[in-house]
C-alpha cells in the first residue's frame, strides 16, 4: 500500500494539480499502478480536500465517501475503502471517540464479500445496495462467486438475460469480457458498462455475447484495439464514441448499429463494414478526422440509407465507393470532408438531400440513371468542381440547389459554376438553362 505521508509532508505542492500528483506517484511507486490509480480516483472526486481539513473520521462519513467514489468512478467497495484509508493515514486522522473508530481491519471486514462455497450465481436482491446498480427497473443484481470475474457486476435485463452492467476494476489496460461466468451465459454488455475507463487500451469480447449497449465504452480515450466476435448482432448508439480505436471490422452478422457509434474517434483510420447493414445511422463517423478508408460490402439485400452527418468532418477521407443498394443520402452526410475528391455513386441511388456534400473537394461528379432528386446546395462549396453529369431520370432539383464552387456565405468572393452535362429533352437540361448554367451534351462526355 502506498505511503501518502511522503507526498503530504515532503511534496505538498504536488497536491495542487492532478498532473503533478500523478507524475510524482508514478515516479515514487512505478510498480504499484493499481494503488496509484485508486489514490488518484479519490483525489479526482474532491474528497482529499475534505480529509485534509478533518481532525477525526467516523464510520458513517467513511461510508458516505466510499459511496461517492463508487458512484463517480465505478470502483468496487474494497478499492474505494483502501484509497480513503491511504489518504486518511497520510493526514494522520484520529478516530472520533463518540461515533466509533475506523481501523484497517474494520474496513476489510465490511468491504469483503461473504464467503460462499456454492459454484452457482447467488441472487441478493434484498441484500444488495440498489443505489449502486445502474438504473433499470427490471435489473436483478447478482453476485458472481468467481475470483476472475469479481470485477464484473452482472444483472438481468427485462428479457431475463444476464448482462454485464458495470466493470468495477480500475487499473487494467487489457480486459477480456467473458461470455460465461460460472456456467451462466452472458448475453450482452449494458449501457455505460465500461464508460470513462481512462487506462483501458485493449478489449477482447468473447464469442457468445450478442450485443453491446449504448455508450458502453464511451470516452475510453486510450482504447485502441477491440476484438468484436461474430456473435455480436447489435451495437447501440455511442458505444465507441470518443475512443482511440484505430482499425475495426464490423462482422457480417451485425444487423444494427446506433447513432454516433464512432463519433469523435479521431485516431480511427480504417473501417471495414462486412455486415449487410441497411442504415448507416446519423453521426456514425462524425469527426473521425483520421479516417482514410471505408470498405462496404459489394452487395446488400434490401435498401440502404446513409444518415444525417454520418461522415461529416472526416477531414482525411479522399475517396469512397458507396455500396450498391444505397437509395438515400441524408442531409449533411459528408459535409466538410475537405479532402474528399472522388465519390463513386451506385446506380441504385434515388435521392441526395441538401448539403450532403457541401464543403468537400470533388472535381467530377457522375450520377447514374435512377437518381430522381437532388437537394439544396448538395454539391456547393466544392471549390475544385469542374463538371457534373445529371441523368435522364432526374425529375426534381430543389429551387435552392446550386452547383457553384463558392461558400454559400462568401458573397464577395468570385464564384464559378460547374458545367452541367445532361441529355437532350431532359429535366436537367431545362433546369440548367433556367439557371443560366453552362451546359453540354452528356453524349460528348468521355469518362
Features:
elongated; 447 residues; six-stranded parallel β-sheet; 8 helices; alpha/beta
Portion of residues in helices? 10-25%
> What portion of residues belong to β-strands?
15-25%
Total DSSP helices: 8
Distance between the termini: 71 Å
- What is the CA-based Rg, rounded? 29 Å
Tally the beta strands.
29
Shape: elongated
- Major beta sheet, specifics? 7 strands, mixed
- Structural class comes to alpha/beta
Average predicted confidence as pLDDT: 82
Which residues form runs of ≥5 with pLDDT under 50? 99-148
Can you characterise this structure?
The structure is a single chain. With about 450 residues, the protein is α/β, with parallel strands linked by helices. The chain has a domain at about 5-110. The protein has helices spanning about 5-10, 20-30, 35-45, 45-50, 60-75, 75-90, 105-110, 425-435, and strands spanning about 55, 95, 120-125, 140-145, 150-155, 160-165, 175, 180, 185-190, 200-205, 210, 225, 235, 245-250, 255, 270-275, 280, 295, 300-305, 320, 325-330, 340-345, 350, 365, 375, 385-390, 395, 420, 440. Strands 5, 6, 8, 9, 11, 13 and 15 form a seven-stranded mixed β-sheet that branches. Helix 2 (about 20-30) packs antiparallel against helix 3, helix 3 crosses helix 6 (about 75-90) and helix 6 runs antiparallel to helix 7 (about 105-110). The longest helix is centred in the N-terminal third of the chain and has 15 residues, at about 60-75. It is elongated, with a radius of gyration of 29 Å. Mean pLDDT is about 80; it is low at about 100-150.
Amino acid at each position: 500500500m502506498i505511503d501518502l505521508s511522503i507526498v503530504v509532508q515532503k511534496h505538498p505542492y504536488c497536491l495542487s494539480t492532478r498532473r503533478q500528483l500523478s507524475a510524482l506517484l508514478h515516479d515514487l511507486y512505478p510498480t504499484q499502478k493499481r494503488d496509484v490509480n485508486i489514490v488518484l480516483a479519490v483525489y479526482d472526486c474532491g474528497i482529499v480536500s475534505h480529509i485534509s481539513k478533518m481532525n477525526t473520521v467516523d464510520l458513517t462519513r467513511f461510508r458516505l465517501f466510499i459511496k461517492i467514489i463508487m458512484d463517480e468512478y465505478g470502483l468496487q467497495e474494497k478499492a474505494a475503502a483502501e484509497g480513503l484509508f491511504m489518504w486518511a493515514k497520510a493526514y494522520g486522522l484520529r478516530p472520533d471517540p463518540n461515533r466509533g473508530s475506523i481501523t484497517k481491519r474494520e474496513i476489510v471486514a465490511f468491504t469483503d464479500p461473504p464467503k460462499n462455497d456454492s459454484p452457482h450465481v447467488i441472487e441478493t436482491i434484498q441484500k444488495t445496495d440498489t443505489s449502486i446498480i445502474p438504473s433499470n427497473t427490471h435489473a436483478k443484481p447478482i453476485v458472481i462467486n468467481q475470483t476472475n470475474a469479481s470485477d464484473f457486476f452482472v444483472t438481468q435485463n427485462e428479457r431475463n438475460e444476464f448482462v454485464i452492467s458495470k466493470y468495477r476494476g480500475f487499473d487494467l489496460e487489457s480486459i477480456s469480457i467473458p461470455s460465461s461466468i460460472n456456467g451462466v451465459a452472458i448475453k450482452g454488455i449494458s449501457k455505460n458498462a465500461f464508460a470513462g475507463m481512462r487506462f483501458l487500451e485493449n478489449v477482447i469480447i468473447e464469442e457468445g455475447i450478442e450485443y453491446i449497449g449504448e455508450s458502453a465504452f464511451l470516452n475510453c480515450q486510450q482504447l485502441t484495439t477491440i476484438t468484436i466476435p461474430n456473435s455480436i448482432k447489435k451495437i447501440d448508439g455511442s458505444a465507441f464514441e470518443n475512443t482511440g480505436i484505430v482499425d475495426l471490422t464490423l462482422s457480417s452478422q451485425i444487423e444494427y448499429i446506433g447513432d454516433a457509434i464512432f463519433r469523435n474517434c479521431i485516431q480511427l483510420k480504417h473501417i471495414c463494414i462486412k455486415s449487410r447493414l441497411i442504415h448507416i445511422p446519423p453521426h456514425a463517423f462524425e469527426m473521425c478526422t483520421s479516417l482514410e478508408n471505408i470498405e462496404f460490402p459489394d452487395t446488400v439485400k434490401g435498401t440502404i440509407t446513409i444518415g444525417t452527418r454520418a461522415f461529416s468532418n472526416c477531414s482525411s477521407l479522399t475517396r469512397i465507393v458507396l455500396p450498391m443498394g444505397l437509395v438515400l443520402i441524408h442531409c449533411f452526410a459528408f459535409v466538410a470532408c475537405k479532402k474528399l475528391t472522388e465519390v463513386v455513386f451506385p446506380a441504385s441511388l434515388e435521392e441526395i438531400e441538401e448539403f450532403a456534400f457541401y464543403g468537400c473537394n470533388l472535381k467530377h461528379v457522375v450520377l447514374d440513371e435512377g437518381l430522381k432528386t437532388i437537394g439544396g446546395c448538395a454539391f456547393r462549396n466544392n471549390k475544385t468542381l469542374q463538371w457534373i453529369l445529371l441523368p435522364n431520370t432526374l425529375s426534381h432539383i430543389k429551387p435552392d440547389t446550386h452547383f457553384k464552387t463558392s461558400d454559400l456565405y462568401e458573397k464577395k468572393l468570385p464564384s464559378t459554376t460547374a458545367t452541367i452535362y445532361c441529355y437532350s429533352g431532359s429535366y436537367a437540361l431545362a433546369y440548367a438553362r433556367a439557371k443560366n448554367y453552362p451546359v453540354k451534351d452528356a453524349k460528348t462526355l468521355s469518362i
